[in-house]
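cron nightly-structures :: item 1 of 1
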Amino acid sequence: MARYLCPMWLALITLLAVVLAAYAGLVVFYWLFQERFIFIRFRVGDRYRFRFRHGLPVEEVYLDAPDGARLHALRFRVEAPRGLLLYYHGNTGSVRRWGRYAHRFTALGYEVLMPDPRGYGKSRGRLSERALMADAQQWYEHAKLAWPEEDIVVYGRSLGSGLATPVAANNRPRMLVLETPFANLYDVATHYLPILPYRLLLRYRFRNDRAIVRVQCPVYIFHGQRDTVVPYASALKLYAAVPAHVQREMFTFPKGLHSDLSRFARFNRLMRRILTGEEAQREA
């Protein structure tokens, strides 16, 4: 009997060693290449000229970061604007893609300033969470050169919520609008592959749940319950962390996915009401 147990134990030990080695390899692989999973960057040549179907006049804006990085954004202007909307976009693509959404806000009377993070579009520079946060704040400072804070709306879309939320926390904008945001990047990573020790691995944590407790302006959150990219529960956690004395609203779309909220008429009605107050005036 004993001679049969030895090969069995040897096989089990060998299998366990293979599983542990594979797991360790997966951990190392994620540690080395996590930026490629988090930031799906598309670069644009310096000579590229932006054109969009909506035909809005677009101006390119450049800033130099203190560490030597070259930052780029698009500014969409309107006549007699009611304010400026600073739009931090999601993790995939560049303003070449995201610029087509600017007309949603210019139609409501807002100028739009839409920066690309480093490594996206025409923005250049070494990537880190600290650098991204500093860049986001630098764009806010740039916005303040032309607009008082009470006329600046900070808007974060998906990963952009990780920049918009701390900017709103560190300043006093008119409001913070978050579309499909998360409480922290742990929630998103665990949603995709729950077996990895992300609290040890992640170099980019984007702790919106910590930043939101310092926000003093009104907060509006939009999220779909069928979102397969950012879990709805994470947005609920973020909403619950907003200080009780701060004006806040969360709008849930039971059939909403991650990138389709604008197809709902209710989304557009709410956005108009929040940004212009027109619907509220009609109801009063």
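cron nightly-structures :: done
The first helix runs from residue 2 to 38.
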